[in-house]
């Protein structure tokens, strides 16, 4: 039984803003905003989800877009995603949410497949492509859940009086 | 004909400088890395959970009583929001609050209630459309009044109630404000809606400090621009009601989009001031903003 390890890579670019003056910081932020916002979905969608350690038998599982972003930590995050997979051999495969140990969909005698899924979770979830009745992961993908405000505590300062 | 123009700053300079300095220290790479790390690893880092800093731009259109005939206005402003907590002491600024920079101590905090003791130097001076009181109208040479107070916040399910009392502590005007509000959150997928209704009492001393007209002032050359001529005015107590509805959407893990609509009643005790030519009793505003969260 071949085993294909799929690696998810996420690149995070940080800027040492503290070394800059506040107004330069703001200018940089606005420039970044112009560049970043329109392309964020595509950038995430084209982010590499898969790789393989055997080029002769390449199994792939991709999910787009990602990540799922909620406002506060602890909130349920919603994201409509599409899983796409392929395997060199025709067989019976299943897409499994390994975080919840839940089968999302199975295909009979297929080598490729797509599945639209309404993701709803407070946590990052991992998914795998497996052969039917197998627990071996052929390919893996992740939907990370991110938050803008890391605190799940009361955001008292967001409540204004007058 | 009225040529008197009152600048309506969204933020005053002192809290801006202080928050930028505080923000520069908070916005270090280590803080950003902590956020990114938690996203990938889904771990919770304690100790920094209440700290954040954000910068943004806001565009506001509104209508309010004014010193000229025109009641409609528009502003492009800078948003500087942030909070930092250390051993129950906190410093916070929320540009839309009208409270400016607040330093405080969280005295009580249980499952449902939180009591903060607060000190601020610019209560009602970082105008958010608006109370009708303008800090630089009467008092060109004043120092920032130091205001002390408390706010009791109750978290009752999805509802939040907040009661607040603030008193001038430095004798600039000896004014007092008392306010109460109730708000609620709704999450519809990743859209976060909120609604707030509130009521505020402001003492006569506070109102008079900002929009009263002294005999000396009434006789000044500048004031004679008003058609009504020189007349003094002593403001009384006022009560205002407000309601707000808004939505916040996380565009990415760093960028937040907000839209807020707001309606505030302006008491006759405010608009009866001879400074006001347009004496509308209601102020409305519509804000849209984009912020980067560090």
Characteristics of this structure?
heterodimer, A: 162 residues, mainly beta, Immunoglobulin-like, B: 294 residues, alpha+beta, Porin, 16% helix
3D structure, described in words:
The complex is a heterodimer of chains A (162) and B (294). Chain A is mainly beta and 162 residues long. Chain A contains one helix and seven strands. In chain A, the strands form two sheets. In chain A, strands 1, 3, 4, 5 and 6 form a five-stranded antiparallel β-sheet that branches. In chain A, strand 3 and strand 4 form a beta hairpin. Chain A is elongated and about 45 Å long. Chain B has a twelve-stranded antiparallel beta barrel. The radius of gyration of chain B is 20 Å and the shape is globular. At the A-B interface, helix 1, strand 2, strand 3 and strand 7 of A face helix 1, helix 2, strand 1, strand 2 and strand 6 of B.
The largest sheet of chain B, given as strand count, sense and whether it forms a barrel, is:
12 strands, antiparallel, barrel
Summing up helix and strand content along with how strands pair, one would put the structural category of chain A as mainly beta
Portion in beta strands of chain B:
35-45%
Supply the CATH class of chain B: Mainly Beta
CATH architecture of chain A: Sandwich
The CATH topology of chain A is given as: Immunoglobulin-like
Quickly count the domains of chain A: 1
What's the number of domains of chain B? 1
Structural class of chain B: alpha+beta
Nearest-integer average pLDDT of chain A: 72
Q: Helix content range of the residues of chain B, please?
A: 10-25%
Quote the beta fraction of chain A: 35-45%
What composes the largest sheet of chain A? 5 strands, antiparallel
The rounded Rg of chain A comes to 20 Å
Ranges of chain A where pLDDT stays below 50 over 5 or more residues in a row are: 1-20, 28-56, 153-162
Provide a concise account of the structure shown.
By secondary structure, chain A is mainly beta. Helix content of chain A is 15%, strand content 42%. In chain A, the strands form two sheets. In chain A, strands 1, 3, 4, 5 and 6 form a five-stranded antiparallel sheet that branches. In chain A, strands 2-7 form a two-stranded parallel sheet.
